[in-house]
Design goal:
There is one protein chain. The chain is α+β, with helices and mostly antiparallel strands. β4 and β5 form a beta hairpin. Helices cover 18% and strands 34% of the residues. The strands form two sheets. It has a five-stranded antiparallel sheet. The protein has a three-stranded antiparallel sheet with strand order 4-5-8. The radius of gyration is 14 Å and the shape is globular. The chain has helices spanning 26-40, 124-135, and strands at residues 47-49, 59-64, 67-80, 83-87, 96-101, 104-110, 116-122, 147-149. The longest helix has 15 residues, at 26-40. The structure holds zinc ion. Zinc ion (ZN) is lined by residues 89-91, 131, 135.
């Protein structure tokens, strides 16, 4: 277990598309553990995508709204509704924008044991899933901004 260096604005890893994980093995579990450690040493981080620590694999960890999740190859398979969000990102400290996100999403993923899981996220969790999964496609929240916020 180790704390990894978070990549910040301007780092090329943040705009790269991450590769699908083919085999969920100890190496992948170690990366997920490191991601969770790295997330936990931030001040108010909710979630982290692997390319935010420079690893271009489709991995996300979330510790937010009573959800503690290590996800492999997460995919949004359904969404409904709409909500206005206030959104920030660990890779862009102090930067907040307003976005429009679905109110509810269904996510299909694998856990660290290779079991398929189906998750439903509403409100803040829906925002969180969308934000993290977009990271894996090299998209950042600023691409979704409808308004800059001064917080
Ligand atoms: Zn982010």
């Amino acid at each position: 277990m180790a704390i990894r260096q978070i990549r910040y604005d301007g780092d090329p890893a943040l705009t790269k598309k991450c590769r699908k994980v083919e085999v969920i093995d100890d190496r992948i579990r170690l990366i997920l553990d490191d991601m969770m450690d790295t997330l936990h040493q931030t001040e108010n981080g909710a979630a982290l995508a692997a390319n935010q620590i420079g690893i271009l694999r489709r991995l996300v960890v979330i510790d937010y709204c009573d959800h503690y999740l290590k996800l492999v190859n997460p995919l949004i398979v359904g969404y409904s509704g709409e909500q206005e969000c206030v959104e920030g990102c660990l890779s862009f400290p102090g930067h907040y924008v307003k976005t429009i996100r679905p109110q509810r999403v269904t996510v299909q993923a694998f856990n660290e044991n290779g079991e398929e899981v189906l998750l439903i996220g509403e409100d803040e969790m829906a925002k969180c899933f969308c934000h993290e999964i977009e990271h894996l496609d090299g998209l950042i929240f600023l691409d979704r901004a409808i308004e800059e916020l001064e917080l």
